[in-house]
Amino acid sequence: MIGNSNDGNLARICFSKPAKFARIVGAPVKLVKILATLLNAINTTRPLNPTKFHAKANEFLTIFHKSNISWNTLNPSLHSLLVHGGDMIRYFRGSIGLFSEEGPEANNKIIRHVKKTLS
């Protein structure tokens, strides 16, 4: 692979095989599984329970800080998800997935096709 490979498709592939992914990055499998659960939760359009989300995020943080990769710092996006995710769900009163850019981005291809056809 050449170039930047930080996208949703790669993440889905990696998290579909948590044991293999955990071995590659040197993280506990439980940590990878919890993160996969949290990422799936925020990408859903179903209502989420902010208290359960917060508990799962805290479980991740506890395991992370006791793990062999605790020397690593959490990037700002992951920090926001883990520390503030429950509050965001509570505040917005809806699933975070509803506020995703994926839907509007997917329409760009359709809009370009329509413009090209009508031109």
User: What share of the residues lie within helices?
Assistant: 55-70%
Radius of gyration, in Å, reads 17 Å
* N-to-C order of helices and strands: HHHHHH
Report how far apart the termini are. 38 Å
The profile of the biggest β sheet is: none
General form: globular
Strand content: under 5%
What class, by secondary structure content?
Answer: mainly alpha
Q: What's the pLDDT, averaged over the residues?
A: 82
Number of helices: 6
Low-confidence stretches: none
What is the tally of beta strands? 0
Summary, kept brief:
With 119 residues, this protein is mostly helical.
Structure description:
The model has no long low-confidence stretch (mean pLDDT 82). The longest helix is centred in the middle third of the chain and has 17 residues. 70% of the residues lie in helices and 0% in strands. It contains six helices and no strands. The radius of gyration is 17 Å and the shape is globular. By secondary structure, it is mainly α.
